[in-house]
Amino acid sequence: MADIDSLKQALAVSPDNVLLMLLLGDALLEQFSLEEARQQFENVLQLEPANAVAKTQVAQILDLSGKSSEAIVRLEQVSGESPNFAPAWLLRAKLALNENNSTEARECYDKAITLDAAMSDIDLLKRIRQAGGRTPTPPPENIQPQATSDFQAGAYFDPDFEEDDDEFDDSTPFGPPPSAASELEMDFVQKADTDFTKVGGMECVKEDIRMKILYPMENKELFEAYGKKAGGGVLLYGPPGCGKTLISRATAGEINAKFMSVGLHQILDMWIGKSEEKLHEIFELARRNAPSVLFFDEVDALAADRKDMRTSAGRTLINQFLAEMDGRQDENDGVLILGATNAPWHLDSAFLRPGRFDRLIFVPPPDEPARAEIIKIMGEGKPLAGLDAAALAKRLKDFSGADIKAVFDQAIEASLAEAMKSGKIVPVTQRQLVKTTKKVKPSTLKWFESAKNYAIYANQSGFYDDVLEHLGIQK
User: How do strand 292-296 and strand 335-341 relate by DSSP bridges?
Assistant: First the structure.
């Protein structure tokens, strides 16, 4: 788990970030700070009332607090609202077993591993069987068991099936069945749907990416002649909302590569060893689909500095991440690993050595011409009247792309309110947009306040020279 203090600092910068709340809640739960952990999950539910992860974690906290009956009721609700959320079914199995209801425990366990074979828990299954829960619910007619081992075949079997401890032999093949791998591919692998032509401005960033990423992958044989491999790791850093995710997706589109965007919630797991296993499976998927772009958003939370961590679980996950990035000489060939962060100074220094995230690209707020381009793109397909993109761009100094979108959203809402009253389309005017710019404040200024200190006082390696140059500060 990432360091609790670092996560709290990150949440202070991004207070509505659901992924950070979930990560902080998990970290607090690992420290057995139940009340604080529950508060984080409740905060998530205020923003996303249907969030199954937060609801399941609240149920786990209730069980740990001695309120097992309430926990079971809540889990039943989660299973009803999100029937395909495997962790809720697995936790239900454990709580049912604690209540000596082995039959229900077995039914919930079978449901969990049918949804996600990677959640198989041999110890839990043994306990359920010892308690008498041997007969699973018959499989739905449209589900066919796909097994690669005796253990996996045991998800559905006849009541007369003879079982013994041999099926738990150490030789049992490890990993999900083929169907699980294909489901993972469906969840992660995407065809990039954009390219640089659809990214407003950012010309310096685009050229930097071309030199460091695109040309090596487009001219693979030429670079190999010089002993250079296509792929590797690139870290994009800068203020929030300035297009790091968009430019990553566009990078994949430029080289016609598969794009895989990985969120923290898709890796982090409450069970020991599961997070490392998920991370390995994602890297294996990227290797099978090369050329591919593997994008980790908010990578600082996943790759935080190990010396700041109080538990071994987070350090183990970081070690796994480092091992996957290193790979064998040809293992990651054709896999471009992109990380995006608002706080590069929180990354473990091991990630910044050659061969890992050794190429850093600063993604600054858009300059005036870029802002004008973004405004034009934002205005496409919308009822506008008298839009002067250049004049509006001058008023939006220090605004990120997300800030400009907020200006448009608020102006459109005002016009939409008038349109609903009149029953006719009311265009968004230049005057209305200018008026809205006074209500929206640039979000980048707070980031530069923090970045300035790191760039001046913690920049011995020169990583943050681009920040100093942007601020006009002499090195």
Answer: parallel
Q: Quick check: 368 and 204 in contact, CB under 8 A?
A: no
> In the chain, what percentage of residues exceed pLDDT 70?
82
Listed as own residue / partner, the contacts of 123-128 with beta carbons closer than 8 Å and 24 or more positions apart are 124/90, 124/93, 124/94, 124/97, 125/154, 126/168, 127/97, 128/93, 128/97, 128/102
Task: Kindly report the pTM of this predicted structure.
Answer: 0.57
Among candidate residues 74, 328, 285, 104, the one with its CA nearest the CA of residue 189: 285
Q: What is the phi/psi pair of residue 193, to 5°?
A: -105, 15
pLDDT tens per residue across span 325-335 = 886 555 787 78
In the chain, the domains with their CATH numbers are 4-141+149-182 (1.25.40.10), 187-362 (3.40.50.300), 368-437 (1.10.8.60)
| Angle in degrees, CA 432, 434, 438, rounded to 5 | 110
pLDDT tens column, 151-190? 333 333 333 334 444 444 443 333 444 444 455 565 566 6
